[in-house]
Amino acid sequence: MTAGSYGRMRATDADRDSVHNLLQGAYADGRLTWDEFDARSTALMQAKTYDELTALTADLHRPVPYRQPAQQVIPYPRPTNQMAAISLGFGIGQVLLPVVGGLVAIVTGHLARREIRQTGEAGDGLAVTGLVLGYVGVLLPLLGLIIAVSAVAALM
Q: pTM for the whole thing?
């Protein structure tokens, strides 16, 4: 008996399972809509012969066009802005360079944030931290100087 001569022969449960797997694959590949898959799966439960099974899958045996596998995108970390690192370094280092370190931290922090907005680099948090430390390092001594001058002026 050849494969084409099975026509009216009764199909087995294994044959129906095989056709169901083929239908599932066609649905997963997008060759069947949900409604088509559902209708054919329902008809599959009623199918008794090889002819009936063949009718459910006749249009699915065409070769699937080759699809190139999707390129795997490997996310590379964004480079950190160097000015942001300098801002943070001077913000912390103003302990050794009071006021001057704070001024450098403020200037480089603002430059870094502008560059980060333009280039999309990482390091905005470093720049903001450098700015905060710089402003605190400049404004606290300035506030202390104002208090000291007003205290001396009050004594005179």
A: 0.51
